[in-house]
Amino acid sequence: MFDLYFESVFCKITKKLNMRLKNSMNRQMPTLKGLRAFEEVYLSESYTSAAKALNVQQPAISYQIKRLEEDLGIALFEKTRGRLVPTLQAHELFETISRAFGSIRKTAERLRYADQSPTLSIATYPGIGTYWLSPRLPHLSERLGLRTKVVTMVKDEDLLREDVDCWIAFGSGDWPGFDAKLLIQEEVGPVASPIVAEQIRESGDGTLPDHIAIIEQEDPEHRWLNWDAWLERTDSDWQPSGKRIVVNDHGLALHLALTGAGIALGWVGIIEDLIKGQSLVQLSPDLVTSQSGYWLLGPSGFLGTEDGQRIYETLASSA
């Protein structure tokens, strides 16, 4: 019984405190109607003109201004020779609310028309989206005169289920029901951060220091070139350490390499910007190539359209 009584008293106290807080907040913030009426009167210096602008009767404007003046405890307008003249306090108030209303109007306009703007949507892998596609989006958007939207997925089955205009996917070019055109042929080589590259150079014998890991991308379907394929097909005398990190996405492998966690195999066409910017260092001139690569996909007939051709030409020219 005591617990129930205590709970009842506590609820009543909490309710009273919430009401006081609400009333306090209401006293601090003037009404929106009053502020809008003030804005229009300030701009037009006329109750009549303000009433027309807000599609209300003049007495309603007079009432809102009176309430606002009472709330603030100041006079906002003075009559001089038959016209309304803002007071110094009115100038200060208008400066504040004009910025606030301006921001609200700008945001509302952007949201109002956001879904009406034509958009090109592309689905691809996180690594491609981050390190290759994103720097090319401004040029692509400008060329097409469209906003661009990128959706990323790790698995192909998820990627191709996305409801988008086109896709960038890895494979040999065989996607039944899709148009496909090669963007970047598979060509891989080892890369690392500048710090890790310097540590390897200092070792001088072609053996990776024990603390430097090999970063592998798991590939149960044997779709892309891996470290074993690179070692077999090159004249490299590398002797990789036994330390390995396995990830399920090329983008994550590149991220780990960039942070100095180890050495990754990089698709040369994908990481060209990172190498030019010296964020990654190509550790060997030996590269291995296959018949696979990254392809631009679209629904049947898409690449024959004007937009499809422009998308391919824009992306291929920077590949």
Would you give an account of this structure?
This is Glycine cleavage system transcriptional activator. It comes from Roseovarius albus. InterPro entries: LysR-type_TF_proteobact-type, LysR_HTH_N, LysR_subst-bd, WH-like_DNA-bd_sf, WH_DNA-bd_sf. Residues 30-87 form the HTH lysR-type domain. The protein has helices spanning 2-28, 32-44, 47-54, 58-72, 88-114, 126-133, 137-144, 156-159, 194-203, 227-233, 250-258, 268-276, 306-317; strands spanning 77-80, 83-86, 119-124, 147-152, 166-171, 178-192, 213-217, 244-247, 262-267, 281-282, 288-299. With 319 residues, the protein is α/β, with parallel strands linked by helices. The protein has 3 domains: 31-114, Orthogonal Bundle (Arc Repressor Mutant, subunit A), CATH 1.10.10; 122-183 and 293-317, D-Maltodextrin-Binding Protein, domain 2 (3-Layer(aba) Sandwich); 184-290, Periplasmic binding protein-like II (D-Maltodextrin-Binding Protein, domain 2, 3-Layer(aba) Sandwich), CATH 3.40.190. A hairpin with a 2-residue loop joins β1 (77-80) and β2. α3 (47-54) packs across α4 (58-72). The radius of gyration is 32 Å and the shape is elongated.
Quick summary:
The protein is 49% helix and 22% strand. The chain is of the alpha/beta class and 319 residues long. β1 (77-80) and β2 (83-86) form a beta hairpin.
